Input
Amino acid sequence: MASANSVPSGPSHPNEDIAIKAVNKRYDGLVTVRTKAIKGKGAWYWVHLEPILIRNTDTGLPKSVKLKCSLCDSIFSASNPSRTASEHLKRGTCPNFSSPSRPSSSLSPQPITTVTFPASNNHRKRSYQMGTASPLPSPYQVHSLAMIESSRYCGELGYSPVHNSVGTANNTGSTQQHLVLSGGKEDLGALAMLEDSVKKLKSPKSSHGPALSKEQINSSLELLADWFYESCGSVSFSTLEHPKFQSFLSQVGLPAKLQREFSSSRLDAKFDEVKTNSEAKITDAMFFQVSSDGWKSRSYCSLDSGGENLIKFAVNLPNGTSVFQKTVFTGGAGSSKYAEEILWETVTGICGSVTQRCVGIVADKYKGKALRNLEVQNHWMVNISCQVQGFISLIKDFNKELPLFRVVTENCLKLANYINNESHLRHCFLKYRLQELDYAGLLRVPSPKCDVLKKFASVFAMLEDIWRCVSVLQMVLLDDSFKMTCVEDPLAKEVARMIQSEGFWNELEAVYSLVKLISGIAQDIEAERPLISRCLPLWEELREKVKEWCAKYSIAEGPVEQLIEKRFRKNYHPAWSAAFILDPIYLTKDASGKYVPPFKFLTHDQEMDVDKILTRLVSREESHMVLMELMKWRSEGLDPLYAQAVQIKQQDPVTGKMKIANPQSSRLVWETCLSEFKSLGKIAVRLIFLQATSCQFQINWSFMRRISLHKHPRVALERAQKMIFIAAHAKLERRDFSNEEDKDAELFSMAGCEDGMLTENFANAPFVVGIA
Output
């Protein structure tokens, strides 16, 4: 190290001048920090760490800044003083440092007891602070209960004590005392608890900090209870009894025993509050639509034990909001008559004898005549099936009736089983998959007990795996072990020809892309929750995209179009055509500049459906009037200025898609500007707000199922239903229709990708909505 008095020579390069200034600036900064710390305005360790300037031996110019321990003269890097203090002082590396407390402040409280153990390898001394309670003052530490004469017990038991030092040296240089506890290091926690008890007896009014007021405690418990209820099963009641959670509550000054309070009076009060709010919203609306979800399982291979179903009901209001109504637990799917009874009980339970307020039902049930029967019995109702289920069922139709799907499935099944079952090929595949895709899993294969044609989810998982592993399978094909297998095994030759075949990969891509196309539309429907006026355009968009798919992969259009038309007819309702004509969003500008209904996009049968549904929805006396008003609407339409205002679009900040800026404008125009249409307007406002999907939200219902399946008492079932009601109400209030488990999976996937971006293969993978 150069002398501080030596004459430094000037820098030979501008970069050196910058470096020297940076070193000096760093040194000055550390000196300033240390000066403030010594005065009691900084970290305790600066009393023992001193910044020093290291100079070049040849030029005498500063080249770096170091930290010097004033206790043992050791030199350290100055890049992280806090870490240096922890490693050198607190962990016992410094031989002259005896206490990890802050020596710069004599008023700081000291630890309860400090026991020093010799390190096994590097002769470091580690200090263990015992106990979790508030530290005791240093006089109490010197006379701690831990000051035990260990030789008394060690001599009696016939072994030599390990000389572990206890306590800290006082200012007069008192000798260290020895401690050996019969239970080993585990006794230190118990000893700390004992000392903590003594401390509490001596100072019973001592506290960790200022106590919370009663108002603060009540407010905190209210927020905690809301979070717990809205988690709805993701956080169980037993979690409230977790020791660490109860310790946290004690630390922040809240009562630790919350299980009884959260499951009784507070739950009842919260439920009553939410129930009152929901009923008020329903009462305020002139009419509503009942949404029912859960009649059909939305997964391909249902793992639902015993076929138990949990049906959830919500109420869709004209202003676009939804209100949760109830849940019904059924012992299986049940008959169509049973479903009809539950649906009608729900309607009468909401509106009593004034059943005309319920203008329709949307449900995910296809089989049976429940919806149709209720519509026939109540002429003012429009009962439709969920569009998500309709599009997903179309995938089932393709899988069952399109030969291409069967061929691709059989070939992929043969390929996947051979790769997974041959040990040397399996190891080869795992090696290359880990190398290429950073994941070493096997190819997913449907269970032999799972019907390949009916349980397409597991089949599609296999297709997806093989499609993503194109490059991996090519590398397996070129591996020497696979080449040797092909010499003797004819099945290996067949698999090799399949991997090398361009036709195999084209057919796989065709099936993969079609499922991705349809499931993508279903996903959009689930996310956007379109109104029934959107149903006809959705199916038309599907037809156009499938035509493009047929042209791209040289697939005959005829059989594909027939399957789409067959599924469309099963799902179609005449109210689709009527809502499409009456919704001002779809008005088109004619040659004269008028904005008129898009009748030209309807078939002749659909035009007839419009007349039939309109006359059914009004009384017999009004049927003639409503048809006259329909003719006037068809010829005159809406004022161009209002039509353009209704059709204004804006970009969705989440999806980036262009959407109608104010969806409520369609209904409001009929209630204000088109008041001359007395009968037609009454039908229009009741039609164009109806939603086309029953999917409202996703909640973890598993705890509800466990309670019901294990025949818990009625009180437990009621509590679970109340929690579901509170959680569902909160989700609908926030318009949060997501699934927490999906969010967690996405979060972990993003966390595992570089720069938070998904890999190209994963990003291009399709999202498949469950198929029953």
The longest helix spans residues 14-41. The mean pLDDT is 78.
